[in-house]
Automatic annotation (TrEMBL):
Record carries keyword Iron-sulfur: yes
Organism name: Caldimicrobium thiodismutans
Family annotation (InterPro entries): 4Fe4S_Fe-S-bd, 4Fe4S_Fe_S_CS
Organism superkingdom: Bacteria
An example molecular function term from Gene Ontology annotations: iron-sulfur cluster binding
Protein name: Tungsten formylmethanofuran dehydrogenase
Keywords for the protein's UniProt record, in alphabetical order: Iron, Iron-sulfur, Metal-binding
SUPFAM superfamilies per UniProt: 4Fe-4S ferredoxins
PROSITE patterns: 4FE4S_FER_1, 4FE4S_FER_2
Keyword Iron: yes
Domain 4Fe-4S ferredoxin-type intervals: 2-31, 37-67
Length: 67
């Protein structure tokens, strides 16, 4: 299965990915990126099934897949 990587510096904190993740494995972390936005992180990465909805939803192309 593909692994999902989060490129935190691109995140603008809009929350769309959190809202639309069917597995509810995403949430805001305490960390802020250089632009000052709280970045998205995985809460339960083992439950992610790489469905790709977060790729489609994110306007900032934060999610990338690793082979
Ligand atoms: S790939 Fe699917 S399950 Fe995994 S974080 Fe993205 S939306 Fe959620
Ligand atoms: S959809 Fe993209 S920009 Fe918006 S919170 Fe999620 S990762 Fe960040």
């Amino acid at each position: 299965m593909k692994k999902i990587k989060i490129l935190e510096e691109r995140c603008k904190g809009c929350g769309l990915c959190i809202e639309f993740c069917p597995k509810k494995v995403l949430g805001f972390s305490e960390k802020r990126n250089l632009q000052g936005y709280r970045v998205v992180g995985f809460y339960a990465k083992e439950k992610c099934n790489a469905c790709g909805i977060c790729f489609l939803m994110c306007p900032e192309l934060v999610f990338v897949s690793e082979e």
